[in-house]
Amino acid sequence: MTIPDAQELHTHARRHAPGREQISWRTRLSTWGPALAWMVLLFYLSSRPKLPQLEDPSWNTLFRKGGHMGVYAVLAILNLRALYRRPSRYRLAWLLTVAFAVTDELHQGLVPGRHATVMDVIIDAAGATLGLCLVRWWPALREALAPR
């Protein structure tokens, strides 16, 4: 019989702590997969040197900024879904979404023909807030996000 060292005891205690259930990789994938897939899509779109534009500059700006807000509202909802069992899930979902918006905007600034702006991050944060408020105040959407 071997005596476990401190690291093994610590690892065992963390894995088998009361109230801490084992989560399978399939569950983790189904929980985080949609949010990660959405992030990959946003990263891909940020990598494009040029995106389609509308001819009217006013409508184009409205469409692009509204698009920023909408896609980050969706990302915040997907992050919230992944964090459903966490006590501070709304705050964490918002922070993860805004952190991704910052890194995505920095990445976009490295793409030729694109530029990074603080205003886009502010619009993304507003979109995240809007998405989380929709879930908070729309019971049918909140029920749809609940784990089964």
How many extended strands?
0
- Compute the separation of the termini in Å: 42 Å
Element pattern in H and E: HHHHHH
Number of helices: 6
Low-pLDDT parts are none
Shape designation: globular
Q: Please state the structural category.
A: mainly alpha
Write the SSE topology.
Elements: H1 6-15, H2 25-47, H3 57-82, H4 89-109, H5 118-137, H6 139-145
Could you name the key traits of this structure?
148 residues, mainly alpha, 72% helix
Protein described:
By secondary structure, the chain is mainly α. It has one domain. The chain has six helices and no strands. α3 crosses α5 and α4 packs antiparallel against α5. The longest helix has 26 residues. The protein is globular. It starts with 5 loop residues before the first helix and ends with a helix. The mean pLDDT is 82.
Q: Gist?
A:
This protein has one domain (31-145).
